[in-house]
Amino acid sequence: MNPRAAFFIDGFNLYHSLAAYAKESGDHSLKWLDLIGLAKGSLHEVGGSSELRSLHYFTALPEHLYLADPGRLQRHRTYLRALTAHGSLRPYIILGRIAQQQVQVRIASGEITGSIWREKGTDVALAMALLREASKGDMDEAVIVSGDADYLPAVKLFREMYPDIGLRFAFPRGRASKELLREAPNSFTLTSAAYLSHRLPERIRLPSGKFLHCPAEWRRKPSMS
Known about the structure:
- The chain is of the alpha/beta class and about 220 residues long.
- The protein has a single domain (about 5-225), classed as Rossmann fold.
- It is about 35% helix and about 25% strand.
- The strands form three sheets. The chain has a six-stranded parallel beta sheet with strand order 3-2-1-6-7-8, with helices on both faces. A two-stranded antiparallel sheet has the order 4-5. A two-stranded antiparallel ribbon has the order 9-10.
- Helix 6 (about 150-160) links the parallel strand 6 and strand 7.
- The chain is globular and about 45 Å long.
């Protein structure tokens, strides 16, 4: 039997990688990313005969932007709908939340208190899903798409509990972690070329027969076709 691989994607860690490349290149088309295609295209890093068994995508809707930037919220909703409508293997989408957090900012005259919006709970939800899938006996290899070193304790626990299941990280471009690489030396990095070669179709047919279209801001420019 071919090794069964499961991917666990930290959506915000991946998004920051995509956004950084988009800012550098001016090309936002890679945000219309085919996660299943990206995972399947990375299976050679896991093992040539591996097959993708499941993909778990952890994200949160930026609902705090519904007044300041409603377009961003709508694009995210459109993207999630596209992910669940395209292809035969559908990702599991796990929604977290974005909460306001108080922070102390040091300035020349002392410190001031401010607030920022941060995603909450992704690391815990991902770790729980990782352990749950392992307990079901439905995977031989686990791939965590993230460069967040906060996953280190969960990875160590996972290795103790399931030593026969392989685990590695797929670091989003520009977000590799030396700590995680030491713990999972078979990890690899996702490149901008991998992002750009795995885009969703410009339009996706829904079960109703209607079509879902890529947001205009994320469409590929003619010169990039």
